[in-house]
Amino acid sequence: MREMMKDYLKNNDVHVKDGTDVNSVMRDMMSVLLEGVLDEELDEELGYSKYDYRNKDTDNSRNGHSSKTMHTSYGDMDVAIPRDRNGDFEPQVIKKYQNTVTQDMEEKIISMYAKGMTTGDIESHMRELYDIAISDSTISRITDKILPIVREWQERPLEEVYAIVFMDAIHYHVRSEGRIVKRAVYIAIGIDMSGHKDVLGMYVGENESAKFWLSIMNGLKNRGVCDILIACIDGLSGFPQAIEAVFPKTEVQHCVIHQIRNSTRFVSYKDVKVLMADLKRVYAAPTEDVALSALEDFENKWASKYPKISKSWKDNWATLSTYFKYPEPVRRLIYTTNAIEGFNRQLRKVTKSKTIFPSDDSLLKMLYLATMDITKKWTGHRQDWGVIHSQLEIYFEERLAGY
């Protein structure tokens, strides 16, 4: 809702000074939304959209608009009601003799854009509460109108420097060319030098690769990002090579918690407790030298039974051990990807009712709407950001000197 209001004010060069202006803006937004719904209803009735004469299969056609004054809680507003040549069209959103839009309906029409509801949910809601019948396809076409806003959001300018960028993936099923395929949505969350958190982008793809990540990194750079101090990832294939090509000074931290989970996945129940205690001596060590010594002890004790564990830690040590360079407050921030995993859990709550998405655009649309709803609560910064910022300024003094 907040993003829709901001976009409306920006695109229409509107300046709000007092409560009267707010009511005027809300009336205008309601009018635009209602007219959009009405036009989509007529498209559905005729079976073809405006100017799409190739798909026209009826002797009926559009016949301009008639004006109707609607009474709302924001004041009276004029709505252009589309007409058809044969006079068969009877709109459902604003019925023939209806001249009042209740506040509840106003809020519903606007909020359905900001909640990520399925078309079936919206259809049921409109029918049960307002006795209004709107088809799934009409609702889909209406909500598709936000796709340009999504694209604009994906390309918006970013900060020059981000202290931390967390990268992770969340998976969904999507219909594509008659098949159901698994799609990964790669999400980037950044913390800027003021300590404010923001979703930098969401990218729908099939397979992780250095080429895929390179396109994302170049996209961030084209949007104004000059440097990322530390990137925190969950073992994303091809990512270290890609970020080194675009942001060569960025330090990469592999999520230690995920490494621990992967290490203990196939460990016998009777060994887990002791093995975890030995592993903790590695990742909770005060220095990297102490951690390496503990890793050698771990390998000597467990390699004969679980050889892949110590090998995996050694193979990934370069990106697993980055956090040992920093003081404790910075370590706590970067050695896990909890910041982005919490966000992903909130996305899943919104999308759990949708087992299969009809298209990539449908998936992106719902995730964007959910993101706008989640991030409106991200108004402050971490309580310990003052300490973290001071430490980062000392550690990255030369890199931050130009910003």
TrEMBL record:
One of its GO terms (biological process) is DNA transposition. Residues 53-62 have a biased composition (Basic and acidic residues). Residues 63-72 have a biased composition (Polar residues). One of its GO terms (molecular function) is transposase activity. Residues 53-73 are annotated as: Disordered. Keywords: DNA recombination, DNA-binding, Transposable element, Transposition. Belongs to the transposase mutator family. Required for the transposition of the insertion element. This is Mutator family transposase. It comes from Blautia liquoris.
